[in-house]
Write a structure and sequence with these properties.
- The complex is a heterodimer of chains A (about 280) and B (about 160).
- With about 280 residues, chain A is of the alpha+beta class.
- Chain A has three domains: about 5-50, Uridine Diphospho-n-acetylenolpyruvylglucosamine Reductase, domain 2; about 60-170, Uridine Diphospho-n-acetylenolpyruvylglucosamine Reductase, domain 3 (2-Layer Sandwich); about 180-280, CO dehydrogenase flavoprotein, C-terminal domain (Enolase-like, domain 1, 2-Layer Sandwich), CATH 3.30.390.
- Chain A has helices at about 15-20, 35-40, 75-80, 85-90, 90-95, 100-105, 110-115, 125-130, 145-150, 225-230, 235-240, 260-280; strands at about 5-10, 25-30, 50, 60-65, 65-70, 135, 140-145, 150-155, 155, 165-170, 180-185, 190-205, 205-215, 220-225.
- In chain A, helix 5 (about 90-95) runs antiparallel to helix 8 (about 125-130).
- The longest helix of chain A has 22 residues, at about 260-280.
- The radius of gyration of chain A is 19 Å and the shape is globular.
- The termini of chain A are far apart.
- Chain B folds into two domains: about 5-80, Roll (Ubiquitin-like (UB roll)); about 85-160, [2Fe-2S]-binding domain (DNA polymerase, domain 1, Orthogonal Bundle), CATH 1.10.150.120.
- Chain B contains five helices and five strands.
- In chain B, strands 2-1-5-3-4 form a five-stranded mixed β-sheet, covered by helices on one side.
- Chain B is of the alpha+beta class and about 160 residues long.
- Chain B starts with a strand and ends with a helix.
- The chains are: A alpha+beta (about 280), B alpha+beta (about 160).
- The interface of A and B includes residues 1, 5, 10 and 190 of A.
Chain lengths: ~280, ~160
């Protein structure tokens, strides 16, 4: 379990990092919780690694005019435990608490996780439900991409060669919102067979806003928009969740067939929505 | 390619030149001679290699030694003092929290962070806190008892 040889750089500024990766040939190392196991198995054999561990100013968690700015190297443990996130974006803290185990959460970063874009990762469901935005920077560009346009396929994102995730932007919770993340974990790996993140806002006894993000079902996480629309137009929970995963190409593996995954997605969506409805005042 | 790096392990400074692909667990065991952290699964699953890096529990099989450059590592060897065992070590002994002992160094390092984050955890919180550490002998009840006993002991000492 020894990785192939590689060159290693540990830049000490974002500027230096962007120069190093500009050619698109070097691989970024953040927490390494996915990359290092892949390198040990030689599923990944990068010639050159650029370690973000010494780049300052990339792990901030701050709120600015109603938006939480979460630096790319903020760890899952930071996101799970920081009072600002627990108070102002509890859905994201809840999703983070489901990732791996505490040792993995101590090292793994939000930027690394979303750039890796594992189809069974937990964050994408929450980030889609939160309508988060992702800030991507290269030596010559600085742009913000909505989460829904960031996750393109299994292990494939909107990142261009030479670009790095620097920040995740999520709206701070308005206070009365209900939320939940419901995950069916694989019993051995802990990854999501499916995971459903839900947000609910109520107004005058009706659901005024419903957002549902689903991970694990297909090659990329997606929003269950038909179910959202049905809930916002007064349909029952059962009617709404029956549409979750409709038309999606579901994964199938030794543990869960495509059909079972869709069933699980609907069951977990219902549970997530029930909890979110209870929490929404 | 070799790379120079230095770090502190159990309060003692180390400086070496290593290949970047050398994993921290291999550095600790084979270069620094600290064989307390164990190599179990080598796939970030079992937690036997857990050490603390700047005060946080990490799996040292999933970390390159050079990533620890300038940082502070604590292994099981760094817990006991001249005065005696650490409360967690003592509690694992008193409560029979081990049989073969292979998982114990990792269990204790993870439990250390668990009790730092949450000094009086419930049973469920202990089980969740230790989910990244696998024991193949005892079942987990005695380990849970040991962590609870250590929490009580540490609270008494702190008070």
């Amino acid at each position: 379990m020894i990785p192939r040889e590689f060159d290693y750089e540990a830049p000490t500024s974002l500027q230096e990092t962007l120069q190093l990766i500009a050619s698109g040939e070097r691989k970024l190392l953040a927490g390494g919780m996915s990359l290092i196991p892949m390198m040990k198995l030689r599923l990944a054999t990068p010639d050159s690694l650029v370690d973000l561990g010494r780049v300052p100013g990339l792990n901030h968690i701050v709120e600015s005019s109603g938006t939480l700015q979460i630096g790319a190297t903020a760890t899952h443990h930071d996101i799970e435990t920081f009072p600002l996130i627990r108070g102002r974006c509890p859905l994201l803290a809840e999703a983070a608490s489901h990732i791996g185990d505490v040792q993995v959460r101590n090292r793994g970063t939000i930027g690394g996780s979303i750039a890796h874009a594992d189809p069974a990762a937990d964050y994408p469901a929450a980030l889609l439900a939160l309508e988060a935005q992702i800030r991507l920077v290269s030596a010559s560009s600085d742009r913000i991409v909505p989460a829904v346009e960031f996750f393109l396929d299994a292990f494939t994102t909107a990142l261009e060669p030479g670009e790095i995730v620097v920040e995740v932007l999520v709206p701070a919770e308005p206070g009365a919102e209900g939320y939940s993340y419901e995950k069916a974990p694989h019993p051995a790996s802990g990854f999501a067979i499916v995971g459903v993140a839900a947000r609910i806002q109520r107004s005058g006894g009706k659901i005024s806003l419903a957002r549902i993000g689903v991970t694990g079902l297909g090659a990329r996480a997606f929003r269950a928009m038909e179910a959202e629309r049905l809930l916002e137009s007064g349909s029952s929970l059962d009617q709404a969740v029956a549409t979750v995963g409709e038309g999606e190409d579901a994964n199938s593996d030794l543990y869960a067939s495509a059909e079972y995954r869709k069933h699980l997605a609907r069951v977990r969506a219902k549970r997530a929505l029930e909890v979110a409805l209870r929490r929404a005042s | 390619m070799q790379r120079k790096f230095s770090l502190t392990i159990n309060g003692k400074p180390y400086a070496d030149e290593v290949e970047p692909r050398l994993l921290l667990i291999h550095y600790l065991r084979e270069v620094a001679g600290l064989t307390g952290p164990h190599i179990g699964c080598e796939t970030s699953t079992c937690g036997a290699c857990t050490v603390m890096l700047d005060g946080k529990a990490v799996k040292s099989c999933t970390l390159f030694a050079v990533q620890a450059d300038g940082r502070d590592v604590l292994t099981i060897e760094g817990l006991a003092t001249d005065v005696g065992l650490d409360p967690l070590q003592e509690a694992f002994w008193n409560e029979h929290g081990l049989q073969c002992g292979f998982c114990t160094p990792g269990m204790i390092m993870t439990a250390r962070q668990l009790l730092e984050d949450n000094p009086s955890p419930t049973d469920d919180e202990i089980r969740k806190g230790l989910e990244g550490n696998v024991c193949r002998c005892t079942g987990y009840q005695h380990i849970l008892n040991a962590v609870k006993a250590a929490a009580i002991q540490m609270e008494k000492r702190g008070a």
